[in-house]
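Record type: monomer structure entry
Structure origin: computed from sequence
Chain ID: A
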Amino acid sequence: MRMIICDDEQKDAELTRNTIDGYRGITDIKVCTPEETVFDIEEGYFDYDIAILDIEYHKDINGIDVGHLINKRFPACQIIYLTKITDYASDVYETEHVYFVTKQNMQTTLYRAIDKAIDMHISNEKYEYIELSVNKKKLVLLQKSIMYLERLDRKIYIHTIDGKLETYNSLSEYSKRLSEDFVRCYGSFIVNLNYVNNVGREKIVMKNGEEIPVGRTYRNSMIRSYMKFLSRRL
């Protein structure tokens, strides 16, 4: 989940970033000036899931103008307005946004705004992300970063390109929330076909060399799913 904070007050921007950093697993946070943000939008470099905008910057540009640009060019990006000024509060409704937060109340309302923005993004991109509970904290994870899921005793281990996460729930429940690229190959394993190098009758060889068993119950459906997956890539 990528986030941008657009603010012409560096001190305010850093406070916002420090407040958010790590919340629900969000660590990819960039702070930009209004000019840098507009440049990235107009040049097509803008690539963020959530944008936090102030309203008043200076006489040449304001946050509502930036919001209009984001709505037009990158409509999937969820916008949160964060400002000290409430004079223009009604004007934000000219743009598509998820929340209006005052900087005075940031500590109590910003997290609610982020929760709503994440929920909206997940709803719009149903199979791009998955939400997990890790160490009693919610974490939003990009599905394409998951290599496979493994059940061991009562725990579920989610093996990603960045490491292993430990959580609970059932593989059946996770399978309902994962894209068609994820296939059950054994009673205790679900694999992401994007990371599969070879499928045999008794085992799968992953691209990193790991071997995962193929259960007799799942063998035929696993092979069919893999062949279908390969045909989609042709």
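Annotation 1: Residues 105 and 226 are 51 Å apart (CA to CA).
Annotation 2: The mean pLDDT is 90.
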